[in-house]
Write a structure and sequence with these properties.
Number of helices: 1
CATH topology: Pectate Lyase C-like
Radius of gyration: 20 Å
Number of strands: 32
Strand content: 25-35%
Strand order of the largest sheet: 3-4-7-10-13-16-20-24-28-31
Shape: globular
């Protein structure tokens, strides 16, 4: 174990292999790992890389689903061969006692029920002790003059169909669902149309949970998807739509059925710009295996002119039964995208694939980046004021997997804590972070151990 609180870079070559028994998973003894060869990449194509679909368990039979109603638990992986991916969310149940709000209510310190046995902790998302400066481009968007207001003042008026129609219309979207937190349940994803920008802003005012009900992805944007209208001849590098999600909870998203544009259990955003602010992501899942597919919560591709995707004051997982799960990048995944993650919490997420990237002989591939999976060429991962802990992998990068294929990328970590992430190997510079030995890693005022 090593604690780092300085900007000095450790000499390359450190190899750390950690197999730790942890409460939610059965970790198989003798799970093999290796330093990966340079991954193959096709960053220009949206949704490139990675196998679609996958299987529902990776390495053993999943445990039973949690009981319905409030208080259900995450089903843990079974014995043998790595992290079990089955039973991610106890599904099929109804919301906890009292409907949208579990017994006790948020005002009384209770938890917000989202159905299927899952609950969301009360309180604001993000790291309350994070004090990183938020740049102007990453600030909240003005939602005071909405294009569409979903709902007419009651929970029943805030339907999945109404939300889907609002997103298709574009512009600024807010909600009027009554005084209490409401869960809007989707049976299919809401899709952004590329000619309805330039800005698409979805603001839940801290009282809206968007649930994929463990059957569907929640939100989709893709500038290169003809079905969503092509607006330029260079769909892989255009400045809009600019999608912002703020003051929302995304729960129980599931993109396992997606094969062409895979990954991104809650949100898939390719092209234009993307940012998430003051939002929470819980129990979202994508394909269980595949060398490059990823983003249990969010998958981002093809950001305009290489500008970063922003994540500000968000929580991914945050508790043992609430983590997001995918083959790679339990929380966040991208190809050729820079990220700036500020004042956030990334914890209890899992990368459950097996075999790395490229996939080892006889394996389906994946299992890297328990919290964040960052792959591509020239890109920068900036993490500031953020906690990354208790994430788990089968292959590499229990906290962060960062591979710059042309060796031009860099990592910047400031005022952050990266601790107690579990599993994997290939840690040449810092524990829990997988990267090429020549990747510049600048660490200031942070703890990594």
């Amino acid at each position: 174990m090593m604690v780092r609180s300085v900007s000095q870079r450790q000499s390359p070559g450190l190899q750390i292999a950690r197999l730790i028994a942890f409460g939610l998973v059965s970790w198989a003894a003798g799970c093999a790992s290796h330093t990966p060869a340079e991954p193959d990449r096709d960053a220009a194509a949206p949704g490139s890389g990675g196998a679609g679909g996958g299987v529902n368990e990776s390495g053993g039979t999943s445990g039973g689903a949690g009981s319905t109603g409030a208080g259900g638990l995450l089903a843990t992986g079974g014995a043998g061969g790595g992290l079990g991916a089955g039973g991610i969310v106890a599904i099929g149940g109804k919301p906890g006692s009292g409907g949208a709000i579990a017994t006790g209510g948020m005002a009384g310190g209770g938890q917000t029920g989202i159905g299927g046995g899952s609950t969301v902790p009360a309180g604001a998302p993000g790291n309350p002790d994070g004090h990183a400066t938020v740049p102007p481009d990453a600030q909240l968007e003005d939602s005071s003059k909405p294009t569409t207001v979903v709902g007419t003042g009651t929970p029943d008026s805030c339907t999945g169909d109404a939300f889907i129609a609002a997103v298709a219309k574009g512009g600024v979207i807010t909600f009027n669902c009554g005084p209490d937190t409401v869960t809007i349940r989707l049976s299919k994803p809401a899709k952004v149309f590329n000619n309805k920008g330039p800005k698409i802003v979805i603001d839940g005012a801290g009282k809206v949970i968007l649930s994929g009900e463990a059957v569907t992805r929640i939100l989709y944007m893709n500038t290169c998807d003809e079905n969503q209208v092509w607006t330029t001849s260079h769909c892989d590098n255009q400045d809009s739509p600019q999608l912002t999600v703020q003051n929302l909870t995304f729960a129980n998203g599931n993109s396992k059925s997606e094969t062409k544009y895979d990954g991104g259990g809650a949100i898939y955003a390719s092209g234009g710009r993307f940012k998430a602010i003051n939002s929470r992501f819980v129990n979202n899942v994508c394909a269980d295996t595949g060398p490059d597919v990823g983003g249990g919560a969010i998958r981002v591709l093809q950001q305009y002119n290489g500008l970063p995707a922003y994540v500000v004051a968000c929580t991914f997982g945050g508790a043992a039964a609430l983590g997001n799960v995918c083959s790679n990048g339990g929380a966040l995944s991208s190809i050729g995208v820079s990220w700036t993650v500020l004042n956030s919490i990334v914890s209890y997420n899992r990368a459950v694939g097996n075999g790395g990237n490229p996939a080892g002989s006889g394996t389906p591939g994946g299992g890297s980046g328990g919290g964040i999976y960052n792959d591509g060429n020239t890109m920068t991962l900036t993490i500031a004021g953020t906690i990354v802990q208790f994430n788990m992998v089968n292959a590499f990068g229990s906290a962060i997997f960062f591979v710059s294929n042309d060796h031009t990328g860099k990592i910047v970590i400031d005022g952050s804590t990266i601790t107690n992430n579990i599993g994997g190997s290939w840690y040449p510079t810092y524990p829990q972070i997988s990267n090429h030995e020549d990747t510049p890693v600048t660490v200031t005022n942070s703890t990594i151990k």
